[in-house]
Amino acid sequence: xxxxxxxxxxxxxxxxxxxxxxxxxxxxxxxxxxxxxxxxxxxxxxxxxxxxxxxxxxxxxxxxxxxxxxxxxxxxxxxxxxxxxxxxxxxxxxxxxxxxxxxxxxxxxxxxxxxxxxxxxxxxxxxxxxxxxxxxxxxxxxxxxxxxxxxxxxxxxxxxxxxxxxxxxxxxxxxxxxxxxxxxxxxxxxxxxxxxxxxxxxxxxxxxxxxxxxxxxxxxxxxxxxxxxxxxxxxxxxxxxxxxxxxxxxxxxxxxxxxxxxxxxxxxxxxxxxxxxxxxxxxxxxxxxxxxxxxxxxxxxxxxxxxxxxxxxxxxxxxxxxxxxxxxxxxxxxxxxxxxxxxxxxxxxxxxxxxxxxxxxxxxxxxxxxxxxxxxxxxxxxxxxxxxxxxxxxxx
Length: 396
What we know:
7-stranded mixed beta sheet, 2 domains, alpha/beta, BCAA_transport, 10 helices, Substrate-binding domain-containing protein, disordered N terminus, signal, 32% helix
């Protein structure tokens, strides 16, 4: 069990000058352990990158009891902005591997960015801990042995989403962004919902950078489904237009995964909606989450958001693996160590499934309810969806 403590966040050492990967001897007690964090620090997913990097820094602190060391070796991490562009993600990852000589990669906010970087992890034989990118293909068709994911995948989301609404005879339409995250998410949701007897009668995909969803929503209305299941990521959500076009008044119920704080005000028309969430700070009941909420509120003046605990989980997973290897960063040893490894996170116990290195984890079935002091609905727990319930198919 980790110790709980409340000192201020220690300064994290950053690499100020480049060094070649050849200068980093794996397992050398005199060398720092270097972690390169890829995140969308600008662009459409900027808020996700901010959440992940905050959580990662807090996770290193928590897992090392504030020493920023493991097995006597200093931990350093370097943040790089992918700009939510796959080609930039590759450039930044290459820089981290070649110039900074990192021992691990972490990231990224976008599934597209992450999929572009996965071959580099294999080429350079370095572990990449994927967080929070959710596309199934990351631990599916594009999997390689250096990939471990603490973030949930689209199939885990789908199982949770389907459990909330799908049953025999229900007709469902979907709306999702037109890239790997959206297509994988719909495919996984369709599989899960059809197992429960529902029928997917229409799949609608919109440009991930879109601001006008009128034509997309009208196509869905024309199909007259019982439910519209929405998969979305980013600041430009379709909720306002769904409300403006009175989708619910037309007899179409809405369901979705409840996302980050920025989307909550747009959910005002959806009070009573049943769906799921990856995380909301008031839902998990465990020591790690208690520490995260307390420290995050103290340092940043607000509760941790949707992907903050994911960043923390990635850091904890790396530190726990390094404890087991006594600081040795040899990738073959780390793979052997991390396959099947369980560790504590803000969402409870996670376990890296040996077959595809996907972390099995808890998700949360919720209902949106009004709450005093808030101008928008808040997700209230209906039940925890345990790791064995949300275990996705093995697709690699």
